[in-house]
Specification:
Helix content: over 70%
Order of helices and strands: HHHH
Radius of gyration: 14 Å
Oligomer: single chain
Number of domains: 1
Distance between the termini: 9 Å
Strand content: under 5%
Length: about 90
């Protein structure tokens, strides 16, 4: 895997984690939140950041629907990454 690809994956995961941190902050303080759709879209390209955001921050852990959709996004992410590795 090339250096650019690794940097892109690290960046996507960092952005996804930052979105979860920002949304958790807004949930506590009030204000405009990050949509679940946006969080889930970023979860496809930044799955580690999404998992860290949910586990470390305990963010959206009571939202069963979100967690089911997150699991689907993670499966999609894994399939996409496997496909990219096999077809490079």
């Amino acid at each position: 895997m090339g250096r650019n690809a690794i940097l892109a994956l690290l960046s996507a995961n960092l952005i996804c984690l930052c979105l979860h941190v920002f949304d958790k902050h807004r949930a506590r303080t009030g204000g405009r939140r990050v949509s679940e759709g946006r969080l889930l879209r970023w979860s496809v390209v930044g799955p580690v950041g999404a998992l860290l955001g949910v586990w470390l921050l305990r963010h959206k852990t009571r939202k069963t629907r979100y967690l089911v959709r997150l699991a689907g996004a993670l499966v999609l992410s894994a399939a996409m990454h496997i496909w990219l590795l096999l077809n490079r």
